[in-house]
Amino acid sequence: MRIILLSIFLLLTCSLYAQPFTSTIRGTVRDADTGIPLAGASLRLASLESGIMSDVSGSFRFDGLPVGRYVLTVSYVGYEKLVIPEILLESGKESIQDIRLSRAANQLAEATVLTSRPVAYNSVQEITPEQTLRYAATYLDPARLTTSFAGVAVANDQANGLIIRGNSPNSMQWRLEGVEIVNPNHLSNAGTFSDRATQTGGGVNILSTQLMGTSYFLSGAFPAQYGNALSGVLDMYLRKGNDEKSEFTAQAGLIGLDIAAEGPFSRKSKASYLANYRYSFTGLMGAMGVNFGGEDIRFQDLSFNINLPAGKAGHFTFFGMGGISSNTLKADKDTTLWEFQKDGSNIFYKNKMGALGITHALVLNKGTSLQSTLLGSGLTTSREEFAVNPKDFSTALKQTEELSKSRLSVSSIIATRFSDKTRLKTGAFLTLQSDMVGTSAKPAPADHTVEGFVLEPFASFNHHLTSRLSTEVGVHYLYYSLTGSSSVEPRAALRFQVTSSQQLSFSYGLHSQLQLPQVYISGKEGNPALKGNADLGPSKSHHFVVGYQKNFRKNNSLKVEAYLQELYHIPVSGSASNSFSALNLVETNIDTKLVSTGTGRNYGIEATFQKYLTSELYVLLAGSVYKSTYEGSDGIRRDSRFAGGHTFSFTGGKEFKSGNSTWGVNTKILWAGGFRDTPIDAVLSASTGVTEYLEQEAFTLKMKDYFRPDLRIYWKKSRRSYSRTLAIDIQNVTGTKNEAFGYYDTYKKQTVIQHQLGLIPVLSYRWEF
């Protein structure tokens, strides 16, 4: 016993008096509008008595810093003061900051901002890679992290399809480096009722966190440069690889095995590379004959970002991502184990996605910059289902599903600052797109391609009216060649700096979004010669947001927003008076003539209190109450499928330091109102063999409230040249059986409630050197 006590004492003593390991925080300070380096910017770390200044190239560096957490404050004459919290410095890894400052136009001297790239006055949240690694049960996916934000919920635990302010997940848009891309997720059929691929969600994000820089999540009244979305935008940006020394990251866990490398191409150049490869842990287990719940799930992906400075010719980046995934379910040979209709099927699902692009940034003069991007992305999925005969295990093809999407986009944006108070940003996106939907499933066979180009020019004018009052007005235009439809969309925002720590804001936007491919091809009634619904224009919405924000000391803030979204030109049934509306679609195929006479309405109020990670503690408390309704062709206003009524999330954690070790305990608690479902006609379903609904009672059933607590515990250990992190994530600690949807099961011959995921532990080990 004495030996054990003595050993513990020696370990504690060594920890207390261990020489702290050091690393570097460095980067550049640039003008947010033009990208011009800012020489002489003042930078100060909260833990240091003195600061430093950026050099003539805008570069700065803090060398010899003990590893740990830092808060960086950046100020420059004539610009808004910027505070960057939650900087994590680890041994073996430099922290490289790309800092962008915005003109202040004589704003109050003590006013500060907490985002390095302002993109909107309202309804915008910054997502950093460090938060994705720290928050509980994110599965290294920024989309899953957004459930910590007010007004956001997931459609199903198995996927990252986002319900934003009562809108369908299909109303959201994914962007990479500012340009729209196809669904960037593995297993895009995860968690869906029909097992078909969705437009915007999936089980795992293909883009690894190892490559991500700061991303931005917008949830309404977007600025003029954003279009073709009604509910939200997740704008993902890639970080640049270290241009001075080589660094590596290896990670192993239930999600997969990751290997990342970055560094300079040569000592004489600032050109750098960053690459990551990942292979799923479940895929390794599947190769050894081990499956999960009878399913063989596999995926792998590769992503990269190459940074090429070219002096006076500008700055080039070349980037890409690609992933393949599959999900195979085979009927058990022991038929006594069959419980549900799916148990008597062999299902083969495959998913492929890729994106490749190049950007060019050029400073034209002291007040003007040009940013151009060429980006192509594509997606293909296939699903085959075979019915298994329980007597001899012979199979018969039951249905097939195919989906392909491709986007080739070119964009160019010019930012011009005429004075300290005035800025103009203009640009255009031109996208060639093709969508194919092929199915042998009910309600009718289809195999159709939808092709056309989308043109989206925009202009945004920002002006500081006074030292306290600033405004941004703009216009976005959307044209789609397939339908010949166009939409002129005004945008406006106003911000009033009440005091140095308080501001009021107002935003308005008219937004539009093209229809889903299955909407355009429906109505052909099996005859490809018919036009179907190709004459439908985009769905539209007026979005109003009023916001108030209070910044407290020590990087705490309170934000309250009220919003109203009036949706119109929504496709509803044109052949009958009923409750159908495209607002409630997720992945379902339809076969009816539609007209754009439907409407919808979402309104609510949201509140967010955020304490960034300082003094080894962070808290993010967010909640909303909202109403979501719609009208079909029968003119009756009903609750929508996603009318949960409220969302609540608590995300927080505490770190405990001991010498060169750090323990972290993090939790996330989600509580949301249950979504709605339509009663099932069991008699008709038994007759037809598929789930049939009582459409006249659409969405009158309210599912139970959704509740899920998550937990993440990690241990970080620093060495002289590397650091390592051992962590365990536990999703749904209490094992709550949240409801997903109901369906008629032909094997059980009754209505069944499908539940979401239960308790899932995820162990991971991360090594950075």
Automatic annotation (TrEMBL):
Keyword Cytoplasm listed: no
Signal peptide per UniProt: 1-18
Gene3D superfamilies for this protein: Carboxypeptidase-like, regulatory domain (2.60.40.1120)
Keyword vocabulary terms for this entry: Signal
Keyword Signal: yes
InterPro entries tied to this protein: CarboxyPept-like_regulatory (IPR008969)
SUPFAM superfamilies, A to Z: Carboxypeptidase regulatory domain-like (SSF49464), Porins (SSF56935)
Entry superkingdom: Bacteria
Protein name: TonB-dependent receptor
Species annotation: Dyadobacter helix
